[in-house]
Amino acid sequence: RIACIRAYWLQCPLPEAVTMCHNRVERRDIAIVQVVAESGAEGWGECSGPPSLILPAIQSFYAPMLLGKDGTLFAALWEQLWNASYN
């Protein structure tokens, strides 16, 4: 069963800045999620999108739907999360 979900915002400077369209990108920002089971087992994943939007969504919207659920049923859990946020 899922006991805890933590979300982290990681930043890493790029060795060399990259220019894309009208933006100059000097660092990589990613959202990382840690899922911890009651047994102590854990899993990690990376999210797509800006961490400033993703982290609050994980903490206030997605995590409450997952707590207490069987983490091995990942396909069913993904479907539940997708359906909850689709519209």
Write out key terms for the chains shown.
alpha+beta
Structure description:
The chain starts with a strand and ends with a helix. Helix content is 32%, strand content 46%. A hairpin with a 4-residue loop joins strand 2 and strand 3 (42-47). The radius of gyration is 16 Å and the shape is elongated. The model has no long low-confidence stretch (mean pLDDT 94). Strands 1-2-3 form a three-stranded antiparallel sheet. The chain is α+β, with helices and mostly antiparallel strands and 87 residues long.
Task: Characterize this entry briefly.
The protein is of the alpha+beta class and 87 residues long. Helix content is 32%, strand content 46%.
- Main beta sheet strand tally, sense and closure: 3 strands, antiparallel
Question: How many DSSP helices?
Answer: 2
- How far apart the termini lie comes to 28 Å
What's the alpha carbon Rg, rounded to whole Å?
16 Å
The overall pLDDT average reads 94
The strand order across the widest sheet is 1-2-3
Provide the helix percentage: 25-40%
Using the alpha-carbon principal axes, give the shape: elongated
Q: Structural class from helices and strands? A: alpha+beta
Q: Low-confidence runs (pLDDT<50, min 5 residues)?
A: none
Give the amount of beta strand, in percent: over 45%
Query: How many E strands?
Result: 3
Helix-strand string: EEEHH
